[in-house]
TrEMBL record:
Species whose genome carries this gene: Kribbella deserti
Glycosyltransferase is among the record's keywords: no
Cited CDD domains: GH25_CH-type
The protein, known as: Lysozyme
Keyword Cell inner membrane annotated: no
Enzyme Commission number, as recorded: 3.2.1.17
InterPro entries: GH, Glyco_hydro_25, Glyco_hydro_25_AS, Glyco_hydro_fam25_subgr
Amino acid sequence: MKPLFSTALAVLGLALVPTAGAAAPSPAHEPTAEARAHGITKAGDAHLGWRLTDSTAASAPVRTTQGFAPSAVVYGIDVASHQGNVNWSYWWGQGKRFAYVKATEGNYYRNPYFAQQYNGSYNVGMIRGAYHFATPNDSSGANQANYFVDRGGAWSRDGRTLPGALDIEYNPYGATCYGLSQSAMVSWIRDFVNTYRSRTGRYPVIYTNLDWWSRCTGNSTAFNQTNPLWVARYASAPGTLPGGWGFHTFWQYSDNPIDQNSFNGSQDRLVALANG
């Protein structure tokens, strides 16, 4: 599939928006010992599923156990600054057809490899999207949604750009739930979701896992009718879904040799999600 060069150039321009006015990481962003053991050595290093461990060492999931055997799936990956400049042609050759790229964290960090990763995946033919690692103790959901949109997390109806994703999970810098009560966390997520929608016209994808969502939101069902679910579980099946979602849209099933994901549907349905 040939890239849409005009759109790619427009997106590249967006990707180069300066981060003037961004807050500097504070001492509160010092990684915990657990986070350091998982390779997070400084503020900004957090990424999707950083605390999960892949015990399967599998490059592809088993899809016929626990009753999970979808009629169609599309495979993809997600990346952050840890991957540096990504060889997108290689991953295309491995059958990956979509990618999510970390754009921002909190209101103080932007992935320095974002342009290469976001536009490189697009140029090789993938459908791509951007994600934001939330730090709800730093600023409001609205503040972080705006920070994300202004630094690569926007959306365009080109059939090749997925809605942005909110990565809401374990805190690598302190208390698991960022010091927020369950009701306050739900309010923070709602603030992010509503602001993102007002800026882009789309509801963001929510990335999380059952354990964190249950602990930190009380397993809230506030978003299962509006926001696509990206569930994290390194196993042979997605398992019990959080938040009353009836099905997952994306599933992160492994981090070996890179974060691996599947889309729960056919390629034409993935394009439909991109088109909104």
